[in-house]
Amino acid sequence: MAETRRSSRATKALVAAAVAGLLLAAGGGTFARWYDAAPVPQQTFTSGTLTIDAATGTWTDSGGTAVANPTAHLIIPGTTLTYTTTVDVKVEGAGLTGLLTTDFSGIAGTTELASVLQVGLTLDGVAIPVEGSGTSTKVTASKTYTLVLTVKFPGQRADGSSWGTYAQGSTADLTAFKLSLTQAAAS
Fold first, then answer.
1. Count of H helices and E strands in the chain?
2. What is the pTM of this model?
3. Which fold has domain 49-183?
């Protein structure tokens, strides 16, 4: 029985030594390791902004008289209605450029009147495109712009003839007109 205890003890010692050897080998030979850490300074970032906001503007007729209710105002050949407002554009960010684009695609109404009206648009006195896709104006700084939209009903047809009854009682709805501001692709 003494020999069984000795071999049992010897077996236990060998198993313990083997487990210790495996643990040391798995840990790279030692349980000790070096460690250090340092904070990275200025690790907080804030994103820029790109926004547009148009104020409620005013309509005037060809004579400069205020048009309180454009829906009730009956436009006639030879007159121009003008809408004036301010547009606040915010462009903040390193190297940020915005593209200001007009969108008249949602304009509705009777085809006759909508087809003959001549629409113009200026931003701080500079004409900007109102037709076609992909036409936009670059904006690189925050600013309040003056936007002027003109809607002209020409006094006569392009060929010089009179309108006759064409476009009488027709409508043109400009409420879907909008300006959009998008980030320009980095160059």
1. 2, 12
2. 0.71
3. Immunoglobulin-like (2.60.40)
